[in-house]
What does this fold into?
Amino acid sequence: MKPIIRDARPADVADILRLIRALATYEREPRAVRASEDAIHQTLFGAGAQVFGHVAELDGSIVGIAIWFLNYSTWTGRPGIYLEDLFVEESIRGTGAGRALFRALAQEALRRGCARIDWAVLDWNRPAMDFYRAIGGRAQTGWQPWRIDGAALEALAA
It folds into this structure.
């Protein structure tokens, strides 16, 4: 049976958080998730929400997620989609759920006039890289990911 891909709904929040935690475990950071159901609900479904999600549903159970937001390219003069998380339960991998989630994201990007979809992958995650190459993705070079958070973010803001 093929998974059904649909927009995330408020009733999906517990499953979305469950899959975020499973992703963190897969990425070897099981204790890194600080999000709560309330936080996920607010960011995905609250007033002025700027984060979006798709879910893969199989036999009535949510088995995959794509969580994303809009970004912008001054070079293209168009918005883009940044895929924050793509995750499919291990037992479902190989069924087409990941590809179907990405297809839905590509359709969303075109519907919104986006020029591209961007995401990051851990340098050790060869299965994900193989999957991304298989659907037409390509690694970017020359740019390094950077971040400011925690105490450094607070100090900069002060």
